[in-house]
Amino acid sequence: MSTQEQSAAATTQTQSPDVVVVGAGTAGCYAAATIARADYDVVILERKTEDEAGHIACGDALKGADSFPEAIPKSKLEPAFTNTGVDHGRFEIPQEDTVLEIPIPGELAVIDRWEYGRRIIEGAEAVGVDFHYDTVVNNVTQTDDGRVTGVEAIRKGEPRTYEAAVVIDAAGSLSVLQDHVDFSESTFDTNVNYSHFCSAYREIVHVDEPVEWDDALVFKPTERAAGYLWYFPRTDTEINAGLGFQMTEEPMKLVDDLKRDLENRPEFAGAEVEDKLGAALPTRRPYDSAVHPGYMAVGDAAGHVNPTTGGGIAGAAYAGKYAAEAAIKGLETGDVGEKTLWEYNERVMDHFGARYAALDVYNILSTAIDVDDLMGLLAAMPGEKLAEALYSGSTSIGPKLAAESLYNSRGHWGTIWNFFQTKRRADDLLELYEAYPHHPAALEHWQERRDDLMEQVYETTGADPKY
Length: 467
Ligand SMILES: Cc1cc2nc3c(=O)[nH]c(=O)nc-3n(C[C@H](O)[C@H](O)[C@H](O)COP(=O)(O)OP(=O)(O)OC[C@H]3O[C@@H](n4cnc5c(N)ncnc54)[C@H](O)[C@@H]3O)c2cc1C
Fold this sequence. Notes:
The protein has 13 helices and 20 strands.
């Protein structure tokens, strides 16, 4: 060690909580609150300042708020719910000159995302979570046999080391922590590529006159199939307007494309833009395994987003809870190995991971299909069945409805046949994910079976392999 390094090491402060959580987003706050409630010491490290924390790029649509984990009570979040009157999606299909109104199952709120962000932080603080803001994690420490023992960070310009029995990586999409961990001794999923992500951008726009569609989430395809624009009403005069595209495509000029669409909509004449943010979000299957000795990844850092809607808040909250409960078990038994933490993977797959993996099949199909054909087909499909498919990963259509849909969709039968075959592949995949292994040693065999099914998905859809 050089003299310079020695003096840096001497001045590096070290802290040793039971658990370190990186990232004060939804996954991090729910994980830390769950751990603090079990009376363990937990610190959240957040790169943003205290004022900026919680300010995260989002479409502001919160689905499933009625059944969020209790570590942060729902009553804490409710003041951030600015519109609870949304009950359907409005799909604008300019190619077909059609607007589809599709019911949205379950509870949905459009929220003020920054206010929500502050409130989950307050909720975690209230149960004893310690927050270190302005703290950028830039390395992960490991023992010789690979167990993660903590992280290194720069806090307000000064180096800091945090030692902990468990590190929870809640640092969001493309988490930098995963670049630093040597995962060779575990099953942690490292098959992650930028093309599994969507690049998205949103503005908060104020209009003078109330919009007519304040009870709907408005969606519109971009000129390419693998992208869409959205208009989500926070109130009838405050709209979250945004768009995104799958990173397999040529990059879109997000700011210009949104501006062009806004200019073409009369309801936005004279509108004022208040806030602009962009980010990447995973639109892929969940990680096959998000555990490694002493370490778990949660939320966007483990691909816990519905890959067809881009909704990731609910998945992040639950992943945080499940990882925290596995960490608590590790702390209680003194064993934070992969086998002890494995239950976390199983609970994610059981709750939403299997469903998201099946939905990813339709995402893969959308990269291979002609956009006009897809829109024509959507316009011909029964709305409630589309909604079911979008959220549950599967749907069934009775003979009468099928006959009507077939009549309406003449001209798109080739695509329908493709869809039908794809749905069978998605159902097979769902079944396999429902039999996700109970221990790490069985993962490899399960992955081989899954990869065989994925081969069939690529064959059926004609899409390039995604994984
Ligand atoms: C444009 C856009 C629109 C979206 N719209 C919706 C929507 O309408 N509804 C929905 O449910 N989901 C939506 N999502 C997805 C949703 O925002 C995410 O799935 C969700 O926020 C994931 O939560 P998280 O806690 O895993 O990560 P994040 O919310 O991203 O939190 C990660 C935190 O980690 C911090 N961090 C990162 N790196 C470091 C580091 N090295 N050191 C310290 N701190 C670090 C970040 O500053 C951040 O605070 C959208 C995403 C985008 C990008």
